[in-house]
Design goal:
alpha/beta; TIM Barrel; eight-stranded parallel β-barrel; two-stranded antiparallel ribbon; binds magnesium ion
């Protein structure tokens, strides 16, 4: 594994400096499918890192997958940090300050990173899209603060560019806000309760479906495409499911197993390098 990562890193050093061509394969009309590494990189814990850390993002960049997904939360003192769960070691992120939370150890002894630190690493590789999940907060005011912090940080690090990042969220409020203020970005709604037609009417241009939802409603892929919307499916770790969604014509799968997906998809993998 270390050897593969080393080779990938050497290739990335060349590839990462090339001009990116973002966007989804379906929108580029080439019939391919993009791989999104879930929370940084697939088996990052085996490689000695915690998920959703800068080290796990670096692994995804080095492997040259199309996208690397990460989750952004807001602390009590309004610092945007990268963490999947709403708590760290039992402390609720929304109720604690960054200073309190950064003291805590994640798996493997790492510490939680701020969005600034994360985007600093993200900026180093133009061929891995930053798939930014804005986590739902307790009020629209807090969701506005979180969105503003992410946008400001992305701008400060030169990645606030539709060819460098996309937004995903379960929050209908934040999804609508991105649609209104930043319509040039791919903006995928994670909750399957609204139809493509309803979302399109609000200016939302993408869907990110739980695999169970799309298994029950496979026609929703066609419906989304008919409305000009990209479709991502999460979290697809099974080889057979990878083949099914590829045949179904989804634009991207989010997976804990990006290297397995690469093997299964073969020439159908959509890459930016
Ligand atoms: Mg996520």
């Amino acid at each position: 594994m270390k050897k593969i990562i080393f080779i990938a890193a050497a290739l990335c050093a060349l590839a990462c400096n090339e001009a990116p061509q973002g966007g989804f394969p379906e929108l580029n009309q080439n019939g391919k499918i993009a791989i999104v590494a879930h929370r940084g990189f697939w088996n990052c814990e085996e490689a000695g890192y915690a998920q959703n850390t800068i080290a796990s993002l670096r692994l995804a960049q080095e492997a040259g997958v199309w996208g690397s997904e990460f989750d952004v939360q807001l602390t009590a003192d309004n610092v945007a940090i990268v963490n999947h769960d709403a708590d760290i070691q039992g402390l609720k992120i929304a109720d604690h300050t960054y200073a309190e939370l950064v003291e805590l150890s994640l798996n493997n002894g790492e510490h939680v990173s701020t969005i600034d630190q994360y985007f600093e690493q993200g900026a180093k590789c133009a061929t891995t899209m930053l798939v930014c999940e804005l986590k739902s907060q307790s009020s629209p005011e807090r969701e506005d603060i979180l969105t503003d912090l992410c946008v400001a940080s992305a701008k400060a690090h030169g990645v606030f560019d539709p060819s460098r990042m996309i937004f995903i969220t379960f929050s209908h409020y934040m999804c609508q806000r991105i649609a209104n203020e930043y319509p040039e970005f791919v903006n995928q709604y994670l909750n399957g309760e609204l139809s493509a037609e309803e979302l399109k009417a609000e200016g939302i241009n993408g869907l990110d479906y739980n695999s169970a939802v799309i298994d029950k409603n496979p026609e929703w892929v066609t419906s989304a495409h008919a409305n000009g919307m990209s479709v991502n499916v999460w979290t697809v770790n099974d080889e057979e499911k990878m083949k099914v969604y590829s045949e179904m014509g989804v634009d991207a799968i989010t997976t804990n197993e990006p290297l397995l997906a690469r093997e299964v998809l073969g020439e159908k993998e959509f890459k930016l390098q």
